[in-house]
Amino acid sequence: MLRAGLPGRWPLLQALLALQAVGRALGRASLAGGPLEDVVIERYHIPRACPREVQMGDFVRYHYNGTFEDGKKFDSSYDRNSLVAIVVGVGRLITGMDRGLMGMCVNERRRLVVPPHLGYGSIGVAGLIPPDATLYFDVVLVDVWNQADTVQVSVLLRPPLCPRMVQDGDFVRYHYNGTLLNGAPFDSSYSRNHTYNTYIGQGYIIPGMDQGLQGACMGEYRRITVPPHLAYGENGTGNKIPGSAVLVFHVLVIDFHNPSDPVGIETLSRPAEPCNETSKLGDFIRYHYNCSLMDGTRLFSSHDYGAPQEATLGANKVIEGLDRGLQGMCVGERRRLVVPPHLAHGESGARGVPGSAVLLFEVELVSREDGLPDGYLFVWHEDPPASLFEDMDLNKDGEVPLDEFSVFIKAQVQEGKGRLLPGQDPEKTIGDMFRNQDRDQDGRITAAELKLKSEEDQERVHEEL
To answer: What is its main location (predicted)?
Structure first.
């Protein structure tokens, strides 16, 4: 209810505009039969939690029903389907309502009895409020804030380990439930089954959320209370966030990263024996791994297949971050790798992997073999025999078919004189070698056709020159 009389037929429904109060005549109606000196307040519902109470100068939003002593209704915000939104304690409301709202909690319900001298006095409001009327209000407070309010952050759950916190420039993936201050929901990422993904500190989200996510850890659960001047202001947005509404977000930070982040590497254990050689680019390795999201959601595991994963480091067979994290390992070493999305599956994600997701790997190097130079299928450990073709021509008929070639190459590997490209089927590799040497593709290699890879490379150089 607003103060004082209004010109003509004032629609109390809208109103609540500020006018000066008239007189302070004693009320003629009271609970005990005598005049009331002040507002009578009955707090008939007090919420368990009350983080703040209404104070002078606060902006409040509330619903009310207004009746006379006989129960006849003279006004109701419910009939207009519109909350009263106003600053209290600065003369914009009748004095009795100003006093009756002080100290009120959100979701609290009060019954106020306002004597005439704290209402509309001996004049009343023509056609609506008779002179010297005692007024009865049932009020429920929906919202309260102050222009001086800042973002309020309450940490509800923080993981025991927090190696790094969110800061400006980070890209964050988080889930949230959003409610108004009275608990009415307006949005939830869970309902879309998709995290909200955004950069922090770059103006992509409301300022209050930008501030409220600063300093959060991966896996942290926090409540962020945002006043309207740091949210959607006086106009609100959509049909669920009204103007001048305080917003409450319950946020779970799934993961975050910075575009400049490298692979995070933590050694979990090393073998007891001395380690003279570690994995390097070009090596063929076998390793076990478990892969999950940072919130513990399990994605993939080599143990599901009953065998280690195989890869040649630097051959673009695995994501770049995993390739980097597997380098420099001893056989038997275990590591934990944190791989940012720009070194994993990027913004688009992959099968089972959300876009922009940070991945967590636990890896164990099972075996390692030296790789071959790029383009080589076989290398000699020492100089090849001077009579290479003669040694390869087992039946001395001047030509080498695939079976003779295969027997010869396998013998060199068995005797430790050379080695095949690791990680491939030996039969396929030998077959590829044979086809490379069989220049005319007639199924036989002649002395004129047989060339070492190094000789072929040298010939190409001369041709290019």
So the answer is: endoplasmic reticulum
Helix (H) or strand (E) holding 291: strand 284-293
Q: Tell me how far apart the alpha carbons of residues 197 and 64 are, in angstroms, rounded to a whole number.
A: 40
Q: Which residue has the tokens 């047989």?
A: 450
pTM value surpassing 0.85: no
Which tens digit of pLDDT belongs to each residue from 68-127? 999 999 999 999 999 999 999 999 999 999 999 999 999 999 999 999 999 999 999 998
Identify whether 176 is a catalytic site residue: no
Instruction: Provide the 10 A C-beta neighbour count for residue 281.
Output: 12
Name the active-site residue from 75, 143, 255, 283. Answer: 75
Torsion of CA 229, 235, 238, 244, to 10 degrees: 50
Q: How does pLDDT run across 22-69, given as a tens digit for each residue?
A: 232 223 334 455 677 899 999 999 999 998 999 999 999 999 999 999
Give yes or no: 64 in active site: yes
Query: Is 120 among the residues known to form the active site?
Result: yes
Amino acid at 44: Y
Active site residue 265: no
Phi, psi of 378 (to 5 degrees): -155, 140
Q: Which of 58, 86, 94, 283 is catalytic?
A: 94
Residue type, 93: L
Reported as a single tens digit per residue, the pLDDT across 32-43 is 556 778 999 999
Q: Within a 10 A sphere around the Cβ of 381, how many other Cβ atoms?
A: 11
H or E element that contains 322: helix 320-325
Determine the Cα–Cα distance for residues 132 and 122; give it in Å rounded to an integer: 5
405 membership: H or E segment, kind and range? helix 402-414
Distances in whole angstroms, Cα of residue 252 to Cα of each of 159, 188, 192, 256, 315: 11, 12, 15, 12, 37
- Among 153, 84, 167, 75, which Cα is nearest to 119's? 75
Whether the Cβ atoms of residue 131 and residue 92 lie closer than 8 Å to each other: no
Q: How far is CA 361 from CA 292, 343, 371, in A?
A: 7, 13, 24
183's CB contacts (< 8 A; 6+ apart) are 107
CB under 8 Å to 222, separation ≥6 — which residues? 153, 154, 155, 156, 157, 212, 216, 250, 251, 253
Provide the sign of the torsion angle of the four alpha carbons 403, 407, 413, 417, taken in this order: negative
Radius of gyration in angstroms for the set of CA atoms belonging to the chain, rounded to a whole number: 39
300 labelled catalytic: no
Is there a contact between 170 and 200 (Cβ–Cβ < 8 Å)?
A: yes
94 classed as catalytic: yes
What's the number of CA atoms in the CB half-sphere (13 Å) around residue 256? 27
3-state secondary structure of 4: coil
